[in-house]
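Appendix B. Extra example for self-study. Work through it before the problem class; the solution is given directly after the inputs so you can check yourself.
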Amino acid sequence: MTDRRTLTLLVTLCVGQVLLISAQVQSREGLSLFQVAAFDAFAGVQRVTGGVTDTIRGIWGSYFGLRGVARENAALRTQLLEMAAELQQQRAIAAQTRALEDLLGLEPQVSVSTLAARVIAGNVSPGTLTVAIDRGTADGVEPDMAVLGAAGVVGRVISPVARGAATVQLLIDSNAAVAVVFERSKAGGLAVGGAADGALVGEFVPSLADVQVGETVMTSGQDGIYPAGFLVGTVERVTGAGTPNRTIRIRPATDFSYLEIVLVALTRPQTATEGGS
Amino acid sequence: MKFTSVLATVTVAVLAQVTLARFTVGGTWVFDLVLVGVVFAGLQWGPAAGLVGGTLGGMFQDLLSGQIVGVSGLAKTLVGFGAGVIGTQFVLTRAHGRSIIVAASSLVHRLLMLALTALIAQEWPVVSWGALLAELVLNTLAGLVVFQAMSALPGMVARRRAGRRASFGRRQW
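Solution. Structure tokens for the complete assembly:
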């Protein structure tokens, strides 16, 4: 069967790992330095593999996947015109808002300064929804900074953060949550990840709030991580409306199936308690 | 030599995992190529190689994903050892026979991970049975491809060598 030496090795390794786990669970500190060093060392390799896959994708997209480009171009031109018109409208609204803020003597909201980062690797351990980005402490990235995408909120930076790379916990991870506000009903709450189909679940939403399907869900900035006013998703389904067991399912705005470039929000939102207002 | 081979297998598996996982983030297509690598090491080189490969691969995953270090390591150590013991008890030469071990290992590994997570968090985590089934199928398919390729490789190399020798002989003539 199995020799004594192998059994001794098995017992030693298992006991060692159990002790390691219990030490981390008790202290909650973990092996942060060791983790950062390992993550930093592996980030270079991840950057290379990410670069290789991007090059292959680029070659495929530039030379082999050109069918229907003319049609797509025409559609994009139309979309650009529509966006330009929308931008004009948004500028007008922003100018109005600024004028109203001046009128009411309100302090204007600080705009969010961001840093573009490239996704270099996916989640190495199945079950945790994280990605690695090519920006780290050298670029001013710290844990608990919000990460945004073109469509909406992507997630937040978590430990370990190395010099040239960082880990991003996606919004759909079972341990992720964001403070939100439902745009139409103005109800506040939390959008929590972890649903099997990649949806978010609305929690701590007042049971009397009239949340409806199709309603836009934005960040409220109350969690001190995500800046206010960024798109989280839209309400997909409301079950058990009018009862204390109401369930609100939110479809995230970001398509998590392939992330390439993301923005790290370098400024954190001021919560009501911090700001003193 | 055996340790170097196990280390190389685990490193290749981790690299393949991080590269391919980028394309399936957030989807139901969950796979664990590191586990496939650990089972491969166990079946190929025995229980000691399986448990060392499991410890290395699991610790690697824990360190890179920012999770509690040792959880995946412990689960993979046990699975790698189990795969190695099965490999020495049964004659598993065919690729599909070995991939059944990958399927069983995937199931045992996931259950171990759930149990360890539940023990640490003091609550049973949300289980997506669809994702679990997808992981089982994808891991098995990956195992089938790896075992098929590994069984075909020696024959391909021998044929190539024989072909080269024959052409060299003709040139001499």
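Self-check: Chain A has a mean pLDDT of 83. If your reasoning did not lead you there, revisit section 3.
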